[in-house]
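In the current project phase, the collection of sequences with tokenised folds has grown. One resulting record follows, to show the layout:
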Amino acid sequence: MKKEDFLKIVRSKSTKDLTEQEVSFLGSMGEAIEQAFQADTVTRKKEIEDLTAMLGTFDGGKSAADVIRALAGKIDEVEAKTKRNLSENDKFKLRQLLEDHKDEITRARGTNQNWQIEFKAKRAASAMMTTSTMVTGATANNKPNFFDDMELTVIKYPANFIIDAIGGRQVGKVPERWNWKEQKAVSDGVPTAVSEGAAKPLTDKAFEWKYSSRTKYAGRIEFTMEMEMDFDQLFLEIVNMFEQDVLRVWNNATQTALLAWAPDYTSTGLDGFYVAPGIAQVIEAGKLHVANNYYDADIVMINPSDAAKAMVHQNVDGNIAYLPLEVAFGGLRPFVSNNITAGTIVIGTTGIVQEQHSAFILRRGVYGNQFIENEETIVGEVFSNLKLPTLSKNGWVKLTVATVLEALKQGV
């Protein structure tokens, strides 16, 4: 309240004109009241009590103290209506701030020294899913021409390679270690034609144990119970997406292991055969490479950009012809994925590779202070054991497109 406003109120309550001395005195009081009204609640009440004790009574029995107290009451009422309570996030941040300054506060209390901290009610971004962080962006609006489409649009990922390509098998209990025997490449003695009565050459075979170890792929999400209540159907979808996240990690790790295991292309009878080779011819060369090792390839793993190029043939004059899918991929089943780097193609026999995995395991519980903070954690995991036989890896081949294209050209 301004001094001038205070004087107007006093004059309206007085039954006679005020003298210059009264106006001067009340003007000073007005300035003091203005300062008091700008203070916080506790300070304001004390200062107003001091001011009202100094005032007398106007003619007509109206006390100036009553006027000031009434004004102070109005301010308290307005302040109470506009006061914003701390949110749970604000309280979290304040508790964290007080904890960070615990030593400083304890020291100040012990010595009766003044202390202060700066608090801003803004919490840093967290991985915890809460009601306020679940859905962001445009807000819902009830206008007739607005429509909130609740269908989820999510990030697209490649198909599951383990299930769709190599036919991994789900088992009740994934073995910690998967053992198998492989024939050693070198053996003694070779059968041959012998004459009557001659000794037959002695031959023998040797084997060695190979094994693969079990791997666990896992992750977790954390959320508040309020979030689950407010977005129950969305929460179910998120749990499903979380499951897919874990499965994709398992899927990608399996592909990475297979890529590292598959041998590189060396040479075939198609080297130097083509005038203008393309991706389709690279695939044919890879298929022949596998056939030369007595395996029958049935799958090609390829990047989307290379898959598109495989269906286009361009001759030395730049003329383009579009190849049917069966011709482009040489009769192999294509598995197109960005997990395969552009410029790399893998061709193989799926029956060689074996994999055992568990069902997706979902666990729900609390840890630390989550129980008293109304929070929960979901843990998801899958166990897998991938068998990549060393002796059989020649049933697969990894081709570097640029290198193989150069090898296939005539005159090279």
Observations:
- The first strand starts at residue 169 and ends at 170.
- The two ends are 95 Å apart (CA to CA).
- The CA atoms of residues 364 and 378 lie 5 Å apart.
